[in-house]
Amino acid sequence: MSTTDKARAASDDNGHDDEESPAFAWLRSLGPRGRRAFAGAFGGYGLDAYDFYALPLSMVAIAAYFHLSGGQTGLLVTVTMVASGVGGALAGVLADRVGRVRALLATVVTYALFTVACGAAPDYETLLVFRALQGVGFGGEWAVGAVLVAEYTSARHRGRTLAAVQSAWAVGWGLAVLVYTAVFGLLEPQTAWRVMFFTGALPALLVLYVRRNVSDAPAAEQRHTRRSPAATFAAVFRHGLLRTTVFASLMATGVQGGYYTLATWVPAYLAEDRGLAVVTTGGFLAAQILGAFLGYLAGGYLTDLLGRKKTIAVFAAASAACVLGYTRVPEGADALLLVLGFPLGFCMSAIFSGFGSFLAELYPTSVRGTGQGFAYNVGRGFGAAFPALVGTLADSWGVGGALVFGAAAYALAALALLGLPETRGRELAHVTVH
User: What pLDDT digit, counting tens, does each position of 315-366 carry?
Assistant: First the structure.
């Protein structure tokens, strides 16, 4: 084998590519091990979305079953997100201490187990506890999976590759809507919501795949071989990382506050404010989900082309505009509501495309899982205030009126970008603390 061939073979296995750039060069450049890691992270995040949406899609039925107010209903999502903030931060530390794959397995098992438990909850208080425990695993999966894949990926394709992982959310969301439409179409609401949660056992199949086929990237493996000092939360607040951690957490708070406000309350808005039936609601959500899937992929290309900050800023503004437009469609104009669902899903998802690459590039390998897990999930925890606020105000303002706070969340995200550097083109092995 020639020197050139050897170099090309090595680049294929280690996640670096040659200068050619066909449409799927990002996938080819991962190498065999990287592609298996991508499959594990993609599946984990897609099923993460499926288990999350078991609640928003069932909220009207759950509220009726337990006789809940809007505030109590919103609290179910808020508790999930606050717990996910804690779980995600802990999973990041775990990933730096025991490895990315082991931490990934722990998060998937946790969110699957407690999603199923939610279906057996005898009362509201028990459901609240189980949903919080589900949130611990739910919060950790993305942070760990994104770091796992990022460390297999070259700087040139990192935005597109991590955006493809993000697109799994739309796949899981779409699967959840299909199952919701079937389950609620066949069963009475008081039984259907429990069955919806029971289907959350699906991730058990993924655990078998990850255990047998996925391993950490060489850089992460070498760190554990050298027995480097254990990562701690304090490490991401050291001089040189403090500013990054604070502003990255604020950015994540705004983006996720806006996203989860919409993810939580749009199904209720369609059912209550617009009076749409289950099957019709599923059709309207399908337009939003298709937009979301394409938004993730398009956002990935833009984040590599324009840079991380510009892409997030553009879609923060576009998402805020879509929220305001979607909730002000006049009565009787349901066709316009269907049309606007596509750009709403596109923009609110495309803004996430650069998250995996941006956060990974802000931190050195020794604390990458800790930093990314902390910023993303603390942002998710604080962002939980937005769905809760909408739930509280929905009783008096209506869901559509209260959704305006989703636009305010996106404004916060745009402002937070002012305190962060642009990282496009940065190799992860060269990230240092300044």
Answer: 999 998 887 787 777 776 767 777 777 888 899 889 988 887 898 888 887 7
**First vs last Cα of the chain: how many Å apart?**
42
Q: What is the largest distance, in Å, between two alpha-carbon atoms of the chain?
A: 73
Q: What pLDDT sits at residue 65?
A: 95
Distance, in Å, from the CA atom of 75 to the CA atom of 128, rounded to the nearest integer, reads 8
Mean of pLDDT values over 187-211: 89
Residues 6+ apart with CB under 8 A from 72: 63, 66, 124, 391
Task: With beta carbons less than 8 A apart as the criterion, state whether 15 and 152 touch.
Answer: yes
pLDDT value of residue 182:
93
Alpha-helical regions (H) of 29-69: 31-66
Rounded Cα–Cα distance for residues 301 and 303 (Å): 6
Residue 420 is given by DSSP the state S
Within a domain: 15: no
Q: How far is CA 379 from CA 249, 250, 372, 413, in A?
A: 5, 6, 11, 10
Cα-based distances in Å from 356 to 104, 107, 163, 368, 398: 15, 17, 7, 11, 35
Q: What is the CB neighbour count within 10 angstroms for residue 325?
A: 13
Are residues 284 and 335 in contact, defined by beta-carbon separation less than 8 angstroms?
no
| Phi then psi dihedrals of residue 119, to 5 deg | -65, -20
Q: Where are the beta strands (DSSP E) in 204-310?
A: none
Look up the CATH number of the domain holding residue 391: 1.20.1250.20
- Residue 269 predicted with pLDDT over 80: no
What is the span of the domain harbouring residue 206? 30-430
pTM of the model: 0.73
Number of domains the chain is built from: 1
